[in-house]
Design a protein that fits this description.
This protein is of the alpha/beta class. The protein has two domains: about 5-65 and about 315-414, Aspartate Aminotransferase, domain 1, CATH 3.90.1150.10; about 70-310, Aspartate Aminotransferase, domain 2 (3-Layer(aba) Sandwich), CATH 3.40.640. It has helices at about 5-10, 20-25, 30-35, 35-45, 65-80, 85-90, 90-105, 120-130, 145-160, 175-185, 210-215, 235-240, 265-270, 295-300, 305-315, 315-335, 365-375, 400-414; strands spanning about 55, 115, 135-140, 160-165, 190-195, 220-225, 245-250, 260-265, 340, 355-360, 375, 380-385, 385-390. Helix 11 links the parallel strand 5 and strand 6 (about 220-225). The longest helix is centred in the last third of the chain and has 19 residues, at about 315-335. It starts with a helix and ends with a helix. It binds pyridoxal-5'-phosphate. Pyridoxal-5'-phosphate binds near residues 118, 119, 147 and 248.
């Protein structure tokens, strides 16, 4: 008996393989399964979740399912066994297969996608790959991710570009309100607009297609930060109408750390300068952007395993459960007098992630109180109009754990 089998035998919930578990809900709709606590408790046993605290900070990255970790370790051992022979022979075919599967996941052509190490690498490849001229302008939001804002700031210092930032409303009245906000800072000099598919600090999902169409009407290219979108909620990448898209696959896909993807629309590849020179590929071959030197190939090798687990759970069931968990707790606290939920109530504008503040407490005080007094692990966010802690459940989160959060918020802000 392995240690894991022993531990499983000690838990009260019997371990059921995912495919068998799914048979028990095969004829139920995704929304019905979303509320089936017995099903999700069974699924929880496929993850090794700490009992030291209630884990509601799955926005940084998401711990992989046990079977995905096991596969990862197998890949580490297999590559290590033959080392350079693997790198000089099978590496390239295996990477192509992983690329194919990620491209299928987001439903774009494999020729427009590469596997990177994370969103930062993907988006910085684009930002640094454009031949900026002094006075060129870029548009973004203050709520965007810091690393990308820093990269744009660096282009401003290096090439004299001008960065124009909007501030996103926490509770937009319509898509048009957001579209016009972005449009209001576009000038004839604007070359690139960056926007989040889902804002990581509030969980707000943006109307990417409408913003992209508006930007294109002004001749502006569109780069989407999809760090939190892939394998969180379902979408077809081509439907977004963007030119560039980056994501991290160690987040919602649950791959072990160090995997991301970059999509570049075919006709945009040629003019991008690679971050690391590579004369081995034609200018219009996306692989020219993918030369990062010797890197941990076993992380890439695990992508098909993570995709398999994600597909078994089912994108629709996963999205429905994640949205259910978020609305489960936000609905209970939204109207409390001293609670500020910084995430839209419209279910279409959010999924798993939400942000909450308590009047009279700084986000740091709130995060500390939640951890010290209730053993709830979150992260404090203090940025522009976002003052609160980010709450990010995952598939292993139970409603009983969220009840502890609701109790805490009632005590602190009721
Ligand atoms: C919106 C957003 N963009 C980019 C990133 C960077 O992701 P990574 O550190 O995987 O590159 C994050 C990380 O949380 C994020 O939330």
């Amino acid at each position: 008996m392995t240690k894991r089998d022993f531990l499983r035998s000690m838990t009260t919930i019997p371990f059921v393989p995912v495919d068998q578990l799914l048979q028990t809900v095969a004829d139920k709709s995704a929304n019905d399964v979303a509320q089936d606590e017995a099903f999700w408790s069974q699924l929880r046993s496929h993850f090794t979740v700490t009992d030291e605290f209630i884990h509601l900070e799955n926005g940084y990255y998401i711990l992989a399912a046990n079977e995905v970790v096991d596969k990862f370790v197998e890949h580490v051992r297999a590559v290590n066994r033959v080392s350079s022979r693997y790198m000089r022979t099978r590496q390239f075919d295996d990477k192509l297969e992983a690329r194919r599967q990620v491209a299928d996941l987001v439903r774009c052509p494999v020729e427009e996608l590469i596997i990177t190490r994370n969103t930062t690498e993907s988006l910085d490849t684009v930002i640094s790959g454009i031949d900026w001229k002094p006075g060129d302008e870029a548009v973004m939001a203050v709520q965007d991710y810091g690393a990308m804002l820093d990269m744009f700031a660096q282009q401003a210092r290096r090439y004299g570009i001008v960065n124009r930032q909007i501030s996103l409303p926490l509770h937009p009245k319509s898509d048009e309100e957001i579209v016009s906000l972005y449009e209001s800072v576009i000038t004839p000099k604007t070359r690139l607009l960056m926007l989040c598919h889902i804002v990581n600090i509030t969980g707000q999902i943006l109307p990417v297609r409408k913003i992209a169409d508006m930007a294109h009407r002004h001749g502006v290219e569109v780069m989407v930060d999809g760090a939190h979108a892939v394998a969180h909620f379902d979408f077809r990448l081509p439907d977004l109408g963007c030119d560039y898209y980056g994501s991290s696959l160690h987040k919602w896909l649950g791959n072990p750390l160090g995997a991301g993807m970059l999509y570049v629309r075919q006709d945009k590849i040629k003019k991008l300068w690679p971050m690391f020179g590579d004369a081995g590929f034609a200018d219009d071959d996306i692989r020219k952007l993918n030369h990062t030197g010797t890197h941990p190939v076993h992380t890439d090798l695990t992508l098909p395993d993570a995709i398999r687990f994600h597909s078994m759970v089912g994108p629709a069931r996963k999205e429905a459960r994640l949205r259910y968990l978020q609305t489960y707790w936000t609905a209970k606290v939204r109207s409390l007098p001293n609670i500020l939920v910084n995430t839209p109530a419209d279910p279409a504008r959010a999924c798993a992630i939400a942000n909450v503040g308590v009047r009279g407490m700084t986000p740091t005080q709130l995060a500390k109180t939640l951890f010290d007094n209730y053993r709830i692990w979150t992260v404090a966010i203090e940025r522009d109009n976002v003052q609160g802690v980010r709450i990010t459940p995952h598939l292993f989160t139970t409603t009983a754990e969220l009840d502890v959060l609701v109790k805490a918020l009632r005590e602190l802000g009721g």
